[in-house]
Amino acid sequence: MTDMRARPRVVIAGGGTAGWVTAAALSSQLKGLLDITLVESDQIGTVGVGEATIPTHRSFHVLIGANEVDFMRATRATFKLGIQFENWGAQGDSYIHSFGQIGKSPWMADFHHLWMQAKADGFGGDLGDYCLELRAAEAGKFALSDKLNLNYAYHLDASLYAAFLRAHSEARGVTRVEGKFVDVRQDGECGFIKSIVMENGDEVEGDFFIDCTGFRAALIEKVLGVGYDDWSHWLPMNRAVAVQTQSAGDILPYTRSIAHEAGWQWRIPLQHRVGNGHVYCSDYISDDEARATLERNLDGEMLFEPRVIKFLTGRRKKLWEKNCVALGLSSGFLEPLESTSIHLFQIAATRLIQYFPFNGCNPALADHFNRLASEEFESIRDFIIAHYHVTQRDDTAFWRDRQAMDIPDTLKQRLALYRDNGLVYKGEEDLFRIDSWIQVLLGQRFETSAYHPAGRLMTTDKLRSSLANYADGVRRTVAQMPSHADFIARYCAMAGE
Predict the structure, then answer these.
(1) Spatial separation of the C-alpha atoms in residues 111 and 66, rounded to whole Å
(2) Which one-letter DSSP state was computed for residue 496?
(3) Alpha helices (H) in 405-459, listed in sequence order
(4) Active site includes 412?
């Protein structure tokens, strides 16, 4: 344990989205209690492929006091109602994992049990009929109003977002130091970090350090050596080839995830361009083949040459060690299949506000922070693994191996619970809701014939009319909504565009 001074000095090592998210969170909520310095170099690039978010992003903006219209204009953002998964369950399949609530659930059973009762009785239609966000996404519609409570997220330009957060943070007292650091000095007795040494010889001293140095993990790993849990035996993707293209076609209010022979491709529409990438495993396909696959499936003209990014799926054994916390890519990496990258360092920064060591860094505090982070990482990991494991595809060695692979016991339990009982649950630290699991499992043809008989507590006619009225309400609401592109043009388009 080490004591903190009355106004602790926080040093954020590294900028990019992770660094400035952290700076924005701490300066917005703990202004006056901390001295915050962020060290970054314009010469060091950022990965910058994660341009899709999840609805928790909106809560983060409430936390830091960011205006939605200002943010969307600054980052050329669009709205996101979910992710369309193509060719995942089987070749030619397509389903949307939307952010919406599906139907209305009684207390004793989730809505899908009522729907399954209806299906057994010969009616009920498609589960998506009862989700406004899903049907709006399919129709390319979007709207905001006091009467319309859509659950949505954003597509954004990550580089522009970092600049937006930088301005936000500097206005709240964060000091930025330009340059590379070349050394780290530690306390000889306890091993706590005392300062980072800049290329020009200057030292930036601190009481608490936040490692936002990306895959380099310059503090948490290179200095403190916490170790890494390698999850590539479950998630073997280790490369991404990324490129931006000119906009082509409609600006859709969802991300596209298109499965290929040895991985998948993302398509993220912004106001001014489209983000594209191909995530793959180099054990099954070469970099050149992966690039060719991506280029064959682009809708617009490339704006620059594609670049290959290498990564290892997993997480640090500890995110908090001594007087250092790792956020962003330095803490670990989960492929962007469900757009969780930005969320993970937003929630870590939020927890740091709650658990900042004003009373000194001590093992109990660090252990608690690490446990919460570990549980959330693992729950997201299991959700992503499920997309690969629960598939009918057997057309390539990659997909056959995903079906046959062993999976974590936690995921085995979830899948068995659904297969044998029709039950899905959300644990305390789980990010994804029951509706998310249901949409993915059904979308990938993971079947169950079991369901709670709550639907039999009402007459068949009552169940039929209740479902029909709900579905009709969804249809009527979607019909009245403007197109996503038209709403963007009125709400948050850049001036002159």
Answers:
(1) 35
(2) T
(3) 409-421, 434-443
(4) no
Structural contact between residues 77 and 157, judged by C-beta atoms closer than 8 angstroms: yes
Q: How confident is residue 173, by pLDDT bands cut at 50, 70 and 90?
A: very high
Q: Which residues pair with 228 in a beta bridge?
A: 316
Distance from C-alpha of 344 to C-alpha of 262, rounded to nearest angstrom: 26
Using alpha carbons only, how large is the chain's radius of gyration in Å?
23
Q: Which of 80, 141, 318, 322 is catalytic?
A: 80
Residues 430-444: tens digit of each pLDDT: 999 999 999 999 999
DSSP state of 240: E
Judge contact between 408 and 382, C-beta under 8 A.
yes
Q: How many CA atoms lie within 13 A of 478 on its CB side?
A: 21
CB 244, CB 273: distance < 8 Å: yes
CB atoms within 10 A of CB 261: 17
Q: What is the mean pLDDT of the chain?
A: 95
Cβ(27)–Cβ(36) below 8 Å: yes
Distances (CA, A) of 343 to 22, 95, 122, 268, 340: 12, 23, 41, 17, 5
pLDDT in tens, 83-142: 999 999 999 999 999 999 999 999 999 999 999 999 999 999 999 999 999 999 999 999
Question: Each residue of 32-82: pLDDT tens digit?
Answer: 999 999 999 987 666 555 589 999 999 999 999 999 999 999 999 999 999
Residue 116 CA: distances (Å) to CA of 98, 126, 243, 378: 19, 10, 42, 30
